[in-house]
Amino acid sequence: MIEVCPLPELPPGEVAVVKTATGRIAVFNAGGELHALDDRCSHQEAYLSDGWLEGCEVECPLHGATFDLRTGHPTGLPATDPVRVHPVQVRNGLVYVDAEPQSSEPQSREPQSREPQSREEIR
To answer: How far is CA 107 from the centre of its chain?
Structure first.
């Protein structure tokens, strides 16, 4: 776990950034709930920490893609791939983030194709 900051320095609506050996992690305070994501939009190279926080979503400042802070999944185009989420803890008034994501890789949200079931569906 990496120490981010004292909890009072991260009030609701604010974000703190920590740098790790593998990149940056943004820790958001969304209405009193802390969430952490890789600080990089999956659509293009932009810091999500420079974006706008609205409820439990962050909007990328570059092209306006939005992401759910709880899951990392995109909720608005042009992004279609999720960003990794990281566990956050508060201990003794200090905010900590785990540099290891909750999952090793973002899950792909590619559409699944299916084969036509009958000749009628082909027409």
So the answer is: 12
Q: By CB neighbour count within 10 A (0-12 exposed, 13-18 middle, 19+ buried), where does 37 fall?
A: buried
pLDDT, one tens digit per residue, over 22-49 is 899 999 999 999 999 999 999 998 999 9
Segment holding 120, helix H or strand E: helix 119-122
DSSP codes of every residue in 10-29: S-TT-EEEEEETTEEEEEEE
Distance CA 70, CA 36 (A): 8
Q: What is the pLDDT of residues 71-111, one digit of tens each?
A: 999 999 999 999 999 999 999 999 999 998 775 344 433 33
CATH number of 2-102: 2.102.10.10
Entry pTM: 0.81
